[in-house]
Amino acid sequence: MEDQYIHLLFFVAFILLLLDCNSLDTISANQEIRDGKTTLVSEGEMFELGFFSPGKSKNRYMGIWYNKISYGTVVWVANRETPIADRSGMLKLNRQGNLVICSGGNPMVWSSNPVESMQGMKFGKDLVTGLQTIMTSWKSPDDPSVGVYSDIHDTNGYPQNLRFQGEVLIGRLGPWHGLGFSGFPLDKTNQIYSLDFVMNENEIYHIYKLKSSIAQRIILTWDGRTLTLQWIERIQDWIVYAESEVDNCDRFSLCGAYGICNINKHPPCSCMQGFEPRHPEEWEGSDWASGCKRKKPLTCGDGKGDGFLKIPGVKVPDTRRSWYNESMTLRECEIACKRNCFCTGYANLDIRNGGSGCLLWLDELLDTRVYDGDQDLYIRMAASELEGVVNSRSNFNKEKRTLIVVLITSSVVPLLFLVAYAFRKTKKRPHMKSQGKWYVYDEKNTSLQMEQLDDLQFFSLYEVARATDNFSVSNKIGQGGFGPVYKGVLKNGREIAVKRLSETSQQGLSEFYNEIKCIAKLQHRNLVKLLGYCVHENELILIYEYMTNKSLDWFLFDETRSLTLNWPQRLNIIHGIARGVLYLHQDSRLQIVHRDLKAGNILLDGDMNPKISDFGLARKFVGHDTTAKTKKVVGTYGYISPEYALQGHFSIKSDVFSFGVLMLEIICGQRIREFSHGDRYDNLLGHAWRLYKEGRTFELMSGSLQASCVVSEVLRSIHVALLCVQNHAEDRPTMLSVVLMLVGEGALPEPKQPAYFNEESCRELKILPSVAGCTITLLYAR
User: Fold this and answer.
1) Cβ neighbours of residue 437 closer than 8 Å, sequence gap 6 or more
2) Per-residue pLDDT tens for 267-307?
3) DSSP characters for 309-360?
4) I need a labelling partner for 351 at 20 to 30 A (CA). Which of 21, 647, 652, 690 fits?
5) In contact, 306 and 381? CB cutoff 8 Å
6) Degrees (nearest 5) of the Cα angle 333, 339, 343?
7) How far apart (Å, rounded) are the C-alpha atoms in residues 495 and 489?
8) Whole-angstrom Cα distance, residue 201 to residue 163?
9) CATH code for the structural domain at 18-120+130-148+204-244
10) Residue 10 has what pLDDT?
11) Residue 393: its pLDDT value, please?
């Protein structure tokens, strides 16, 4: 789900808002609502009940839709399977207390069930009555009858949510682990909704409640998409607030039994440690459904015993064949699993406060995936197989400890010996092997794989050279601060972007390793995906997904290409970048400050969706430590915040400043370091501020946008940008506030005079850092 920026759950019932708003006006016995003549409006006039025809259909249905906003957007349908062919329908309340729809000579087209209750918007199962809430899609946009997609809260084993296409299980939301759902991004504390899970002897359900007046709805579309939509009064339309992002690892049991899916690897499926493909020939053909088998059988019951291997950070397997206890400790859980010869693994039920409760699997482990979360899985293995793993890790840890001592002594980044060797080679940079003329037929050309990066695919230099036609100039698609970027095609036909450290680059091994550490485990639709890496002697190479439309600056600052970027596209790019930065600052496991947001580091996919790239300068924060100081200021002239440039202080507010600059560039179509206006010394920020103070803000917009712009959107975007470039970090909004301000319509706070008001103040930047003992490294990519 994306991106998402407040993550919501796809199974929520289809009348989210209805049940949190005032009830519909009551209907008395013998009162009628006739098709075409009468409707019933809620007390707050938010909803209306009556008869309607969906889409192009001529059939009539009784339903509830929005009244004051988005008139005609249906949130509930009564007679889904029994439409009325004409306008003779009537809704009555009979003396038994049931709502009844009748039509012509048919006295009961549809009737409510007196035992049905939607109180509190529960999604789950009543264990007393057996009543279960199921979410189903429409058959088509014109037909609200039950479609092929459905979401169900399954209570076999430990409860979890399953998605079906007909009778076929196609998706699974992991079970509740105390903070959220296993394998699903954790929802941060927010002011929009609350979510909880309840399980007792009477019922099992999830409950979702809106905490604000914001209109949101979650729909399961007829074609199986789950969308969270939010009403924006300013544009009088629904926007996609979040969308369930489906990747290969979301397909149920893609990798089969004891397989584990990792979307950051290619191919994504591999066997868990201690297991091997059941049918190797099928795996070689990328058919993983047969799964994996144990290399060595379990010895349960023969006195030798088995052990358990910890797999950290996973979406736990399918729990339909599981057993659970809410009060056991993890140690007690291990003992219980060891005593049961059918037990294949265990985990904590609740990951809060160090973990509690016990969840045992009593069958093959299905649908497990690597996930950037805090839930660990312990899989059962033969003692002899486990010894090999433990010994291997023990030897590795000893070498690692020795290496750390050596590296600390020599003040080198904490890498393995081979990487340190590559670092020394990189520092010397003799002649870059004649710029890397590697012969593609030399398949024995060996490269160095970083032991610490086993979550990321390793490519040999042979593979990279073959993919790029020996780093052919004809395949070069860009040049950044790190080095040249090439387009390549892997053996399986996948297009890739290859970023190669150049001989003259101001960056090196530390930036290379930093980028891998920061981005390897991040997953968001507005972040570029890192596919792998290559280290070979003094060659340092990063492999990314290929972006068809290159970078934002390639479009934005070209006189001809910029004409193809209309206002809706530019606004979509602004929103996408904002959501991506918000993910880095708040919703990712590692709180990350990018430190080099600029148009050249925003890539565009085939649909012109933005993806943030280049994490070589990024820094991560842990816990509440959200500010840091450095003596080496790095970044790009014009985008660096004043407190960072002058004092070396950086924080998430540094990125907010850079984002504000980027917004102004997108709106006016000019690069900040090349901006000029008449004979004034104003830079882009100063020019935007003067126009704002004079009431001429709209004049900042590029003239090419006149035909496609929405004036209110342009003015609001410039206003938000000015708030982002405030001189003092504490005056700038957070990215969460930025996202909400961009999509909202409420009043905005007044901005103050921005930093670097004119070129004279910018020139002072070159002198002041030396006084503070700082060094500025300015990187000009592309």
Assistant:
1) 470
2) 899 999 999 999 999 998 889 999 999 999 888 765 467 89
3) EEE-SEEPPP-TTEEEESS--HHHHHHHHHH-TT--EEE-SB-GGG-B-EEE
4) 652
5) yes
6) 70
7) 4
8) 25
9) 2.90.10.10
10) 29
11) 52
Phi, psi of 367 (to 5 degrees): 60, 50
Domain boundaries, the chain: 18-120+130-148+204-244, 249-390, 412-545, 552-778
Q: What is the pLDDT of residues 57-73, one digit of tens each?
A: 999 999 998 888 887 89
CA distance 288 to 480: 38
Query: Which residues is 488 bridged to in the sheet?
Result: 496
Fold for 552-778, please state it: Transferase(Phosphotransferase); domain 1 (1.10.510)
Band the pLDDT of 644: cuts 50, 70, 90.
confident
Residue 596 catalytic? yes
396 falls in which pLDDT band (50, 70, 90)?
Answer: very low
pLDDT for the residue 587:
76
Strand ranges inside 67-215, DSSP E:
74-77, 89-93, 99-103, 106-111, 122-126, 134-140, 143-154, 160-165, 168-173, 193-199, 203-210
Q: What whole-number distance in Å separates Cα of residue 93 and Cα of residue 111? A: 10
Q: Given this model, what pLDDT does residue 263 score?
A: 84
The answer for 400, left when phi > 0, alpha when psi is -120 to 50, beta otherwise, is alpha
* β-bridge pairing 292-294 and 275-277: antiparallel
Under a CB-based contact definition with an 8 Å cutoff, are residues 611 and 394 in contact? no
The separation between the first and the last C-alpha atoms of the chain, rounded to the nearest angstrom, is 32
Q: According to the model, what pLDDT value does residue 633 have?
A: 66
Which of the four pLDDT bands, split at 50, 70 and 90, describes residue 399? Answer: low
Neighbours of 362 (CB within 10 A): 15
Amino acid letter, residue 205: Y
DSSP string, 604-640: E-TT--EEE---TT-EEE-TT--EEE-SEEEE-TTTS
Helix (H), strand (E) at residue 424: helix 417-428
- Look at residue 591 and tell me whether its pLDDT is greater than 60: yes
How confident is the model over 246-262, as a mean pLDDT? 88
Q: Among the listed ranges 121-125, 278-282, 384-388, 705-709, which one has the minimum average pLDDT value?
A: 384-388
Which has more pLDDT, 358 or 614?
Answer: 358
Gap between the Cα atoms of 503 and 510, Å rounded: 15
Domain 412-545 CATH (choose: 3.40.50.1860, 3.30.200.20, 3.10.20.310, 2.60.40.1120): 3.30.200.20
- Distance CA(514)–CA(520), nearest Å, equals 10
| pLDDT tens readout for residues 402-458 | 555 555 545 444 444 454 544 444 444 333 333 333 333 344 444 555 545 556 788
Burial of 26 (0-12, 13-18, 19+ CB in 10 A): exposed
**Whole-number CA gyration radius for the chain:** 29
Contact (Cβ atoms closer than 8 angstroms) between residue 347 and residue 377: yes
| Residue among 313, 299, 307 at smallest CA distance from 390 | 307
CA distance 504 to 498: 17
Name 709's Cβ contacts closer than 8 Å, sequence gap at least 6: 567, 701
Share of the chain above pLDDT 90, in %: 36
Q: How far is CA 397 from CA 111, 162, 381, 457, in A?
A: 68, 40, 21, 22
**Judging by beta carbons within 10 Å of its beta carbon (0-12, 13-18, 19+), is residue 592 exposed, middle or buried?**
buried
pTM here is 0.52
**Three-state SS across 428-484?**
HCCCHHHHHCCCCCCCCCCCECCHHHCCCEECCHHHHHHHCCCCCHHHEEEECCCCE
Among 35, 250, 374, 596, the active-site one is 596
Classify strands 457-458 and 530-536 as parallel, antiparallel or unpaired. parallel
**479-497 per-residue burial string, b: 16 or more CB within 10 A, e: under 16:** ebbbbbbbbbebeeeeebb
- What letter would DSSP give residue 10? T
Phi, psi for residue 419 in degrees, rounded to 5: -70, -40
